[in-house]
Amino acid sequence: MNIVPIINTNDAVVPPAEPNSDLQGVNVISVKDNDSLAARLAVEMKTDLLIVLSDVEGLFDSPPGSDDAKLIDIFYPGDQQSVTFGTKSRVGMGGMEAKVKAALWALQGGTSVVIANGTHPKVSGHVITDIVEGKKVGTFFSEVKPAGPTVEQQGEMARSGGRMLAALEPEQRAEIIHNLADLLTDQRDEILLANKKDMEEAEGRLAAPLLKRLSLSTSKLNSLAIGLRQIASSSQDSVGRVLRRTRIAKNLELEQVTVPIGVLLVIFESRPDCLPQVAALAIASGNGLLLKGGKEAAHSNRILHLLTQEALSIHGVKEAVQLVNTREEVEDLCRLDKMIDLIIPRGSSQLVRDIQKAAKGIPVMGHSEGICHMYVDSEASVDKVTRLVRDSKCEYPAACNALETLLIHRDLLRTPLFDQIIDMLRVEQVKIHAGPKFASYLTFSPSEVKSLRTEYGDLELCIEVVDNVQEAIDHIHKYGSSHTDAIVTENEKTAEFFLQHVDSACVFWNASTRFSDGYRFGLGAEVGISTSRIHARGPVGLEGLLTTKWLLRGQDHVVSDFSEHGNLKYLHENLPVPQRNTN
Amino acid sequence: MNIVPIINTNDAVVPPAEPNSDLQGVNVISVKDNDSLAARLAVEMKTDLLIVLSDVEGLFDSPPGSDDAKLIDIFYPGDQQSVTFGTKSRVGMGGMEAKVKAALWALQGGTSVVIANGTHPKVSGHVITDIVEGKKVGTFFSEVKPAGPTVEQQGEMARSGGRMLAALEPEQRAEIIHNLADLLTDQRDEILLANKKDMEEAEGRLAAPLLKRLSLSTSKLNSLAIGLRQIASSSQDSVGRVLRRTRIAKNLELEQVTVPIGVLLVIFESRPDCLPQVAALAIASGNGLLLKGGKEAAHSNRILHLLTQEALSIHGVKEAVQLVNTREEVEDLCRLDKMIDLIIPRGSSQLVRDIQKAAKGIPVMGHSEGICHMYVDSEASVDKVTRLVRDSKCEYPAACNALETLLIHRDLLRTPLFDQIIDMLRVEQVKIHAGPKFASYLTFSPSEVKSLRTEYGDLELCIEVVDNVQEAIDHIHKYGSSHTDAIVTENEKTAEFFLQHVDSACVFWNASTRFSDGYRFGLGAEVGISTSRIHARGPVGLEGLLTTKWLLRGQDHVVSDFSEHGNLKYLHENLPVPQRNTN
């Protein structure tokens, strides 16, 4: 396996070198223990990597266990000239001296080194695989210091910058966004030049639809600027809104107010226009932001990020939005659970699923799938059905709120209504797949579906037959993705039964599934559509980027006054709160 | 390592047995391939376990890849007499026939068998460790069928039962809870008898405080019943409340209403009184519930769960609350991400942390730590400070909302106010730890703190000195847990600055940190206190167990009518919603 294990000192049988010859030349290191033996051997053999396993996680920047101690991911000897081996003060090596000395010596001799913990139960054996795969494990020794801050430092800047952003007046946040919108049009030439570079590098390597998503144009930038101004105006009423007020006792008043969540990590794929849009949403909601864009849009993202920071500078909060280096792996970012409060993936449902798996303890907001149903009831109006099905399926079939499965009441088979639907689908060139029950009713059936749980995202549609509204609901619960499901009927009782019982984010009656959208719902800026059941569900506006905090203002109130033997009683009187503004 | 690897057919060099002698006796199996060779060898050698690794996950209950196919965790041959080898219909073995035959033969010969996937990248090698550790991997062949449903079946029952519960009228849910409250007092003797069994078995094995938490009494049951009736009354206004109404267009109205989250998993430690309380909260909010209690309270939990199901039966929703077998590992439950929507750990912060780590993709609601601060400003009122500090620290020091670090403005050192605080802490026998700055100001200082990030949970307090309110805020952000932090001052401007800038769930002015509590906040039933920033933050009432769904009622509305070329325009008119009831 091309691995030389070196277990411990007793295996070292060479005579010791002179005590003081260490580090006097690249070829001299005293072999005193397994660490120095390993370093010597690694250099002699020109190994690719020396892994030094210990019982601590790696090198810390202050004594391990102290309040501020942080693991050093990458250690640059050139940057740390003042390190004094043998003292514990500078890098908190406590017991690590020999390992660090050996590591530095091996690094000088041209071997990469990782010091990591080899004692984790259950995953021991795994640590080596992780290191070889290039994951962030332990401390990596490197000669070359990358330019710019580490992602941990960026996380801290986003946190403190975000807090400063949150402390601004709503008007100031809106002003930053307006400023960014101006910059997008003023600096158009520079942006398009950077985008041209991306396009040239991507040419021939990306498929046409992806190239289209990557490209920016004057008109795209203009409409982006318009969108930003909308976000700016919807931001006025978001942070600091009072949701609840309670008089707990005389002169003791409780208030629940909206506040930013903290630090968001937004991961997006090729579309660079995502960057200013997401940045504007974060600014509007007072959140710190880490942005991770695709490699293919690196040039465009860089200039767009610079402009965002320029806009933020007008109120001294430049650091609130950080662009993460393209070399950082998404998986590594997902481990920063102390720094990131919410991850928002913007892109394919595959991206969302991957990130949901990778995120360890950090909540992820995003829809993974949109398998939307429309149930045509036996009492559906002939005039409405075709119109509703066409809009739901054909208007923009790639959208997550487009129709994927049409459920038809059994009584409608072989009626003019049914023929009308099929004729319309033929005209619109929609490929029909038959559910097993539907297929069994037909003499000549279209190809049977492979799975009733399919998101076609194209001009394809599954049709299945159900006996009644209850069976339609059961089908939706079993095969749906709880995104958007609709009923077409003239019977109000059936409709309300459906609305109440279907357990989806959006449930519609006699309306196209395509209404499931933040803009169409009137939520102002749309953050995304969430199929999660926690925090935000369905189309999410700026509110999805907010949480709340409780403010209690008293005089000298203590809980013991309210105990059995105390002299006070809880009032718990709800006080009026200002109503939401009408748009 | 006591493992015999059997790689493939080519290694089998024994002559083939007669074709039809298979399964005719326990000692006869034709060695045709590696599977049969392995089974034969396993039985001959009396091995503990035969692991058959394949390229599929295990045995499925219908053809793998079909919509309904589910992995069989444990396969009981006695239960599946009708299995026909060679057909793919019954257990969807497609290609698995030889393996299943070998497995059944080995099982009959007294060897346990697991069929699992050995081809997962990255974790290959791990699957064997997982199996040996008893984790749920692949399909385990067993002769003994355990009584009762599997946890997956329980998850499905909780889901469908929960949906039925959610469809009841609020009055019916309240009735179930009242019924459970009655049963707790009516069936008191039976409950106390079961609890006595638990106590006897725990005697000498559990520490006194844990025994106290385990024990039930008539008075505990009575106050539990009172609490349940309160939950019942606060349940009336929870599910189905309209939060937002928007007129999107003429005759197209959008409504956002509260609905249950779905299925909750509540994990609790020794306290059996947790069970009816949590069940009542789930019932009140219309959620399905999986309960996982501690082994030490098994007898008490069993009877309390039976009574809960009895109460649920009055409206035919008995299955909505499931008690998970004590043998199920929490880690295995946390993997059921398709079945569980929210995990609520109730117990020590260690339990919460463990579960946050184990939960893969399922959100966890719970506070991990309460490191609460009180900042005494230079303009604090002498009369108030001592009173507020005493209540915050001494009234119930084990609570998560108790004070842990007192931050004192530098100007107060060596003033009568300062002496008053120290005198009070002496009288209350609070052990003082000095922060580094505080220690540097004193000639003789108390022992210096090991970490400023400590939750003592006892009559111990850290005191640190700060120069001003900004430094107090910085300290809280650096060392706090964003739970509850308070300021004592008479200066309204300083107070409002603190209230706005401290980034914690609860921020108080001139009030004890101990007010941070659902009951004291007037939230009715308390679900817990959340230090998460997502979904619910701070003290959480029934609302924390709810999410929302969007209902859209139209006539025949399609989005293409609202396009550039369409004839309709979005109105997005906010309609009034009913105000929250006053308690």
From TrEMBL, chains A, B:
Residues 151-413 form the Aldehyde dehydrogenase domain. It catalyses: L-glutamate + ATP = L-glutamyl 5-phosphate + ADP; L-glutamate 5-semialdehyde + phosphate + NADP(+) = L-glutamyl 5-phosphate + NADPH + H(+). GO terms for molecular function: ATP binding; glutamate 5-kinase activity; glutamate-5-semialdehyde dehydrogenase activity. CDD domains: ALDH_F18-19_ProA-GPR (cd07079). Residues 2-117 form the Aspartate/glutamate/uridylate kinase domain. GO terms for biological process: amino acid biosynthetic process. Pathway: Amino-acid biosynthesis; L-proline biosynthesis; L-glutamate 5-semialdehyde from L-glutamate: step 1/2; Amino-acid biosynthesis; L-proline biosynthesis; L-glutamate 5-semialdehyde from L-glutamate: step 2/2. This is Delta-1-pyrroline-5-carboxylate synthase isoform 6. It comes from Daubentonia madagascariensis (Aye-aye).
